[in-house]
Specification:
By secondary structure, this protein is mainly alpha-helical. The protein has eight helices and three strands.
Length: 133
């Protein structure tokens, strides 16, 4: 028979492990899917393991976090001249530095895609009124 300390330790261990899991229904909402089969296909394609426990299916939060970080890193490296500094600011949660870095010049390929359109005279007048207020 287990003593109380072992039971409490076992419960804490179980709670700790459950906090590392995300239920597939929550993942459906997170990724915008409707059907559970689509999420299962997405997980297989992206090498995210699925864990079936009883009638519920889970995956580890850390795999989802790694996937999101990889996509973010790919985007930043493809669109900014200073990706290492931006990623460091994101990891350090340095919002002030991040906002300065994001306003840094984009690569030529990106700047071609997002040409700045000239505002109409009415829009310029409206912006001037807002700034004056």
């Amino acid at each position: 028979m287990e003593n109380k300390e072992e039971v409490v330790e076992s419960n804490e261990s179980r709670k700790n492990m459950m906090s590392k899991l995300i239920e597939i229904k929550d993942l459906i909402d997170l990724l915008g899917y409707v059907d559970e089969r689509s999420i299962e296909t997405w997980c297989k394609k992206n090498k995210v393991p699925l864990i079936h426990i009883g009638k519920k299916t889970y995956t580890l939060n850390s795999f989802i976090d790694m996937f999101i970080n990889q996509k973010l890193e790919q985007f930043i490296k493809a669109n900014y001249k200073n990706p290492d500094e931006i990623l460091k600011a994101i990891n350090n949660d340095d919002k002030t530095n991040l906002s300065k870095l994001i306003n840094a010049p984009l690569d030529k390929d990106s700047s071609i895609k997002f040409k700045v359109k000239k505002n109409s005279k009415a829009a310029d007048d409206f912006i001037k009124k807002l700034k004056a207020a």
